[in-house]
Predict the 3D structure of the following.
Amino acid sequence: MDKIRVNGVGIEVRRVPGPDGGRRAPIVFLHEGLGSVAMWRDWPAQVCAVAGRPGIVYSRRGYGASDPVPDVRGTGRLGPDYMHREAFEVLPALLAALEVEAPVLLGHSDGGTIALLYASRFPVTACVVMAPHVIVEDCSVSSIEAARGAFEANGLRERLQRYHADVDGAFWQWNDIWLSSAFRDFDIRTECRGIAAPLLAIQGEDDPYGTLRQIHEIEPRGRYAKQVLARCGHSPHRDQPERTTRAVADFLAGLP
Protein backbone atom coordinates (compact mmCIF):
# COMPACT_ATOMS: atom_id res chain seq x y z
CA MET A 1 0.00 0.00 0.00
CA ASP A 2 1.33 3.43 -0.97
CA LYS A 3 0.32 7.00 -0.19
CA ILE A 4 0.88 9.40 -3.06
CA ARG A 5 0.73 13.18 -2.85
CA VAL A 6 -1.75 14.60 -5.34
CA ASN A 7 -2.33 18.36 -5.35
CA GLY A 8 -0.88 18.41 -1.83
CA VAL A 9 -3.17 15.67 -0.53
CA GLY A 10 -2.12 12.16 0.52
CA ILE A 11 -4.04 9.56 -1.49
CA GLU A 12 -4.09 5.86 -0.54
CA VAL A 13 -3.13 3.66 -3.51
CA ARG A 14 -2.88 -0.10 -3.88
CA ARG A 15 -1.32 -1.66 -6.98
CA VAL A 16 -2.48 -5.01 -8.33
CA PRO A 17 0.17 -6.78 -10.44
CA GLY A 18 -0.93 -8.05 -13.83
CA PRO A 19 -0.24 -11.54 -15.16
CA ASP A 20 1.33 -10.13 -18.34
CA GLY A 21 3.90 -8.03 -16.48
CA GLY A 22 1.91 -4.85 -16.95
CA ARG A 23 2.07 -4.47 -20.73
CA ARG A 24 -1.67 -3.86 -21.16
CA ALA A 25 -3.54 -0.77 -20.00
CA PRO A 26 -4.16 -1.01 -16.25
CA ILE A 27 -7.62 -1.08 -14.73
CA VAL A 28 -8.14 1.88 -12.40
CA PHE A 29 -10.87 1.16 -9.83
CA LEU A 30 -13.03 4.10 -8.67
CA HIS A 31 -15.06 3.40 -5.55
CA GLU A 32 -18.62 4.22 -4.56
CA GLY A 33 -19.77 7.15 -2.43
CA LEU A 34 -18.90 5.41 0.84
CA GLY A 35 -16.16 3.17 -0.55
CA SER A 36 -12.42 2.86 -0.14
CA VAL A 37 -9.53 0.62 -1.13
CA ALA A 38 -10.41 -1.82 1.65
CA MET A 39 -14.10 -1.99 0.74
CA TRP A 40 -13.29 -3.45 -2.68
CA ARG A 41 -11.81 -6.44 -0.79
CA ASP A 42 -10.23 -8.90 -3.22
CA TRP A 43 -12.47 -8.25 -6.21
CA PRO A 44 -9.98 -6.00 -8.08
CA ALA A 45 -7.38 -8.78 -7.92
CA GLN A 46 -9.93 -11.25 -9.29
CA VAL A 47 -10.87 -8.97 -12.17
CA CYS A 48 -7.26 -8.22 -13.03
CA ALA A 49 -6.38 -11.93 -13.04
CA VAL A 50 -9.26 -12.85 -15.34
CA ALA A 51 -8.81 -9.81 -17.60
CA GLY A 52 -5.03 -10.22 -17.75
CA ARG A 53 -4.27 -6.65 -16.68
CA PRO A 54 -2.60 -4.85 -13.79
CA GLY A 55 -4.75 -2.69 -11.57
CA ILE A 56 -4.69 0.44 -9.43
CA VAL A 57 -7.11 0.90 -6.54
CA TYR A 58 -7.28 4.19 -4.65
CA SER A 59 -9.33 5.96 -1.99
CA ARG A 60 -10.53 9.47 -2.72
CA ARG A 61 -9.74 12.20 -0.23
CA GLY A 62 -11.69 11.70 2.97
CA TYR A 63 -12.08 7.95 2.44
CA GLY A 64 -10.10 4.92 3.55
CA ALA A 65 -6.59 5.89 4.61
CA SER A 66 -6.40 8.97 2.38
CA ASP A 67 -6.05 12.38 4.00
CA PRO A 68 -9.26 13.65 5.64
CA VAL A 69 -11.28 16.68 4.59
CA PRO A 70 -11.15 19.34 7.33
CA ASP A 71 -14.49 20.68 8.58
CA VAL A 72 -16.42 18.48 6.17
CA ARG A 73 -19.79 19.87 7.28
CA GLY A 74 -18.61 23.49 7.16
CA THR A 75 -15.85 25.04 5.07
CA GLY A 76 -14.93 21.62 3.65
CA ARG A 77 -18.46 20.81 2.48
CA LEU A 78 -18.58 19.42 -1.05
CA GLY A 79 -20.33 21.31 -3.82
CA PRO A 80 -22.67 19.95 -6.51
CA ASP A 81 -19.68 19.75 -8.86
CA TYR A 82 -17.63 17.46 -6.60
CA MET A 83 -17.60 14.56 -9.08
CA HIS A 84 -16.63 16.89 -11.92
CA ARG A 85 -13.71 18.12 -9.81
CA GLU A 86 -12.63 14.55 -9.08
CA ALA A 87 -12.79 13.66 -12.77
CA PHE A 88 -11.26 16.80 -14.24
CA GLU A 89 -8.72 17.81 -11.57
CA VAL A 90 -7.86 15.04 -9.10
CA LEU A 91 -7.89 11.91 -11.28
CA PRO A 92 -5.73 13.42 -14.07
CA ALA A 93 -3.16 14.51 -11.45
CA LEU A 94 -3.19 11.07 -9.81
CA LEU A 95 -2.73 9.25 -13.12
CA ALA A 96 0.11 11.62 -14.06
CA ALA A 97 1.82 10.87 -10.74
CA LEU A 98 1.43 7.15 -11.45
CA GLU A 99 2.64 7.61 -15.06
CA VAL A 100 -0.54 6.04 -16.42
CA GLU A 101 -1.88 7.01 -19.83
CA ALA A 102 -5.17 5.87 -21.38
CA PRO A 103 -6.24 3.52 -18.55
CA VAL A 104 -9.24 1.26 -18.34
CA LEU A 105 -11.54 2.96 -15.85
CA LEU A 106 -13.82 0.75 -13.74
CA GLY A 107 -16.12 2.77 -11.51
CA HIS A 108 -18.92 1.89 -9.12
CA SER A 109 -21.76 4.29 -8.23
CA ASP A 110 -20.15 7.73 -7.65
CA GLY A 111 -16.96 6.19 -9.03
CA GLY A 112 -18.87 5.25 -12.18
CA THR A 113 -20.01 8.83 -12.59
CA ILE A 114 -16.44 10.06 -12.17
CA ALA A 115 -15.28 7.51 -14.75
CA LEU A 116 -17.87 8.72 -17.26
CA LEU A 117 -16.89 12.33 -16.74
CA TYR A 118 -13.18 11.59 -17.11
CA ALA A 119 -13.78 9.55 -20.28
CA SER A 120 -15.77 12.44 -21.77
CA ARG A 121 -12.67 14.64 -21.73
CA PHE A 122 -9.51 12.49 -21.51
CA PRO A 123 -8.23 9.43 -23.41
CA VAL A 124 -9.08 6.01 -21.97
CA THR A 125 -8.68 2.52 -23.40
CA ALA A 126 -12.17 1.67 -22.15
CA CYS A 127 -14.67 2.66 -19.49
CA VAL A 128 -16.70 0.22 -17.38
CA VAL A 129 -19.33 1.57 -14.98
CA MET A 130 -21.48 -0.25 -12.44
CA ALA A 131 -24.62 1.48 -11.15
CA PRO A 132 -23.48 4.97 -12.20
CA HIS A 133 -25.42 8.16 -11.46
CA VAL A 134 -26.09 10.34 -14.50
CA ILE A 135 -29.14 12.08 -13.01
CA VAL A 136 -30.68 12.35 -9.54
CA GLU A 137 -33.88 10.33 -9.14
CA ASP A 138 -36.40 10.31 -6.29
CA CYS A 139 -35.41 6.76 -5.37
CA SER A 140 -31.79 7.88 -5.07
CA VAL A 141 -32.72 10.56 -2.57
CA SER A 142 -34.99 8.22 -0.60
CA SER A 143 -32.28 5.59 -0.29
CA ILE A 144 -29.70 8.15 0.79
CA GLU A 145 -32.12 9.52 3.38
CA ALA A 146 -32.49 5.95 4.67
CA ALA A 147 -28.70 5.63 4.81
CA ARG A 148 -28.59 8.73 7.05
CA GLY A 149 -30.97 7.09 9.50
CA ALA A 150 -28.95 3.88 9.43
CA PHE A 151 -25.73 5.79 10.09
CA GLU A 152 -27.18 7.73 13.00
CA ALA A 153 -29.08 4.92 14.72
CA ASN A 154 -28.88 1.50 13.09
CA GLY A 155 -25.24 0.46 13.09
CA LEU A 156 -24.04 1.69 9.70
CA ARG A 157 -21.43 3.92 11.32
CA GLU A 158 -19.93 0.96 13.17
CA ARG A 159 -19.90 -1.20 10.03
CA LEU A 160 -18.16 1.51 8.00
CA GLN A 161 -15.64 2.38 10.70
CA ARG A 162 -13.34 -0.51 9.80
CA TYR A 163 -12.91 0.89 6.27
CA HIS A 164 -12.28 4.59 6.96
CA ALA A 165 -9.80 6.44 9.16
CA ASP A 166 -12.37 9.27 9.47
CA VAL A 167 -15.74 7.52 9.21
CA ASP A 168 -17.79 10.62 10.05
CA GLY A 169 -16.04 12.70 7.42
CA ALA A 170 -16.45 9.94 4.84
CA PHE A 171 -20.17 9.62 5.48
CA TRP A 172 -21.19 13.24 5.82
CA GLN A 173 -19.27 14.60 2.84
CA TRP A 174 -21.31 12.19 0.68
CA ASN A 175 -24.66 12.28 2.44
CA ASP A 176 -24.91 16.04 2.95
CA ILE A 177 -24.34 16.94 -0.68
CA TRP A 178 -26.65 14.26 -2.07
CA LEU A 179 -29.49 15.45 0.17
CA SER A 180 -28.96 19.14 -0.58
CA SER A 181 -31.41 21.03 -2.78
CA ALA A 182 -28.51 22.24 -4.91
CA PHE A 183 -27.72 18.69 -6.00
CA ARG A 184 -31.18 17.81 -7.35
CA ASP A 185 -30.28 19.29 -10.75
CA PHE A 186 -27.14 17.15 -11.16
CA ASP A 187 -27.16 15.79 -14.73
CA ILE A 188 -24.19 14.55 -16.79
CA ARG A 189 -26.06 13.23 -19.84
CA THR A 190 -24.59 15.97 -22.02
CA GLU A 191 -21.04 15.07 -20.98
CA CYS A 192 -21.71 11.39 -21.68
CA ARG A 193 -22.36 12.20 -25.34
CA GLY A 194 -18.68 13.11 -25.63
CA ILE A 195 -17.42 9.62 -24.73
CA ALA A 196 -15.78 7.98 -27.75
CA ALA A 197 -14.02 5.06 -26.03
CA PRO A 198 -15.66 1.63 -25.66
CA LEU A 199 -18.11 1.76 -22.77
CA LEU A 200 -19.81 -0.98 -20.74
CA ALA A 201 -22.53 -0.18 -18.18
CA ILE A 202 -23.77 -2.79 -15.69
CA GLN A 203 -26.77 -2.30 -13.42
CA GLY A 204 -28.90 -4.50 -11.18
CA GLU A 205 -32.64 -4.72 -11.69
CA ASP A 206 -33.16 -4.20 -7.96
CA ASP A 207 -30.86 -1.20 -7.47
CA PRO A 208 -32.47 1.01 -4.77
CA TYR A 209 -30.28 3.98 -5.72
CA GLY A 210 -31.31 4.29 -9.35
CA THR A 211 -33.60 2.93 -12.05
CA LEU A 212 -32.44 1.59 -15.40
CA ARG A 213 -32.74 5.15 -16.73
CA GLN A 214 -29.25 5.63 -15.32
CA ILE A 215 -27.72 3.43 -18.02
CA HIS A 216 -30.34 3.77 -20.74
CA GLU A 217 -29.86 7.55 -20.88
CA ILE A 218 -26.11 7.35 -21.44
CA GLU A 219 -25.67 8.04 -25.14
CA PRO A 220 -21.93 7.96 -25.95
CA ARG A 221 -20.41 8.45 -29.40
CA GLY A 222 -18.46 5.18 -29.28
CA ARG A 223 -19.29 1.50 -28.81
CA TYR A 224 -21.74 1.03 -25.96
CA ALA A 225 -22.81 -2.21 -24.28
CA LYS A 226 -25.31 -2.51 -21.44
CA GLN A 227 -25.88 -5.43 -19.10
CA VAL A 228 -28.81 -5.63 -16.69
CA LEU A 229 -28.46 -8.22 -13.93
CA ALA A 230 -31.44 -9.95 -12.31
CA ARG A 231 -31.44 -10.49 -8.54
CA CYS A 232 -28.89 -7.71 -8.20
CA GLY A 233 -28.94 -4.49 -6.22
CA HIS A 234 -26.60 -1.50 -6.21
CA SER A 235 -23.34 -3.50 -6.12
CA PRO A 236 -23.03 -5.93 -9.05
CA HIS A 237 -19.52 -6.96 -8.00
CA ARG A 238 -20.85 -8.10 -4.63
CA ASP A 239 -24.33 -9.35 -5.60
CA GLN A 240 -23.31 -11.12 -8.83
CA PRO A 241 -19.49 -11.29 -8.67
CA GLU A 242 -18.90 -14.09 -11.17
CA ARG A 243 -21.21 -12.65 -13.83
CA THR A 244 -19.84 -9.16 -13.32
CA THR A 245 -16.22 -10.29 -13.51
CA ARG A 246 -16.89 -12.27 -16.68
CA ALA A 247 -18.78 -9.37 -18.27
CA VAL A 248 -15.85 -7.02 -17.61
CA ALA A 249 -13.22 -9.48 -18.87
CA ASP A 250 -15.18 -10.31 -22.01
CA PHE A 251 -15.72 -6.64 -22.80
CA LEU A 252 -12.02 -5.84 -22.41
CA ALA A 253 -10.81 -8.81 -24.44
CA GLY A 254 -8.90 -7.68 -27.52
CA LEU A 255 -8.33 -4.14 -26.26
CA PRO A 256 -4.76 -2.87 -25.70
